[in-house]
Sequence to fold (399 residues):
Amino acid sequence: MTGSELDDLDGLAGEYVLGTLAGADRVQFEAQLRLDVAAARAVAAWAMRLQPMADAVAPAIPPASLWQKIVGEVGLPQKPSRRGWIALAAAAAVLAAVLFVGDLMRQPDVIGIAELAPQGGATAFTVSVLEDREKLLIRAGAVDQLQSQSYELWAVPPSGTPVSFGLINASGETETDVPQDKRALLETGVTLAVSLEPQGGSTTGAPTGPVLFVGALSAPQ
Amino acid sequence: MRDTDQMLIACQGGDREAFSGLYRIASPQLFGLALRILRRRDWAEEALQECFVTVWRRAGDYKPDLGPAMPWITVILRNKCLDRLRREKPLQPLDESAAAERPDEGPSPLEGAMANAEAKRLKGCVDELEGTQKTSIMLAYYEGLTHEQLAARMAAPLGTVKSWIRRGLQRLKKCLEP
Fold:
């Protein structure tokens, strides 16, 4: 390739990365990119040069449902929980937890996160464990509002006996304090579940209604 | 823990965990950029979705010896954004009234970017461009304007705008050379 051809190629690569190469020119260049290493190299160099412009923009958290859409579109099957099936999950299948990195400048310290959903369904609740397990933040997603019933959150440790973390709101966010004696339960891998209870919650200390949403707690990395 | 380059390479082999990890790490920055360019949450969500679908399907096109993963993914994301903008306003000059609707944001994101050495270097080089070169490049990058739209926005002939862009990019490249 001559010097001026290289310049032309570099000019095209720069405009491709900047975005001003449009229409038929862009289509043609994209075809060339797949075949011509020199073109690919020029584009990679421009992409690196201009990357700080992308990095300068403030990050934003996409909705949890977006990952489900991506997974659905590319046809990735859901993974079963690492802990396997538990009796409590009879009414709802376990869905692998999806990590969700919060913007640390806008949120308190998140040390664990779980997305609770029915199998193949949209996330119903996102549970974040804050600050050394002292608090839980529960954000409601795709979930039905209730009339004379309540949603109750449980942790199911390896022993299998669920422990209640109280009632949670069907919309918006709930923040609850975690009593000292329950903090140890909130370890990575523990199953969290939401059951449907009479208004005011279960009176037996165990779920009395169906378990609707389940997920595993994972630590942010 | 793997870095994004390694995760993207693992995607080439169909590694779903790696793909999920890549999304976790990269999606906030990419989503922020999509929101900035597109101004609409629904469009930004679509662009991000399309981006990652393409990343998964075309992971094999990524050549690690040519450069890191994030710039490669960012090019894909920006192209999805530009596709959306051009679908809605196919290559025509912007109405002046449409331009007026866009709130004046003051300095471009790059102005505030002093986060790292690369950002400082790029900002320094951008600041050395002629005013029209700098403006046209910033508008093209952050608003996705075409040559025609830039010509309308900056009230200049098409050929002049093309030359601002081309010369501006050449000067940036030269300035950034070690």
The first strand of chain A starts at residue 110 and ends at 116. The CA atoms of residues 78 and 155 of chain A lie 22 Å apart.
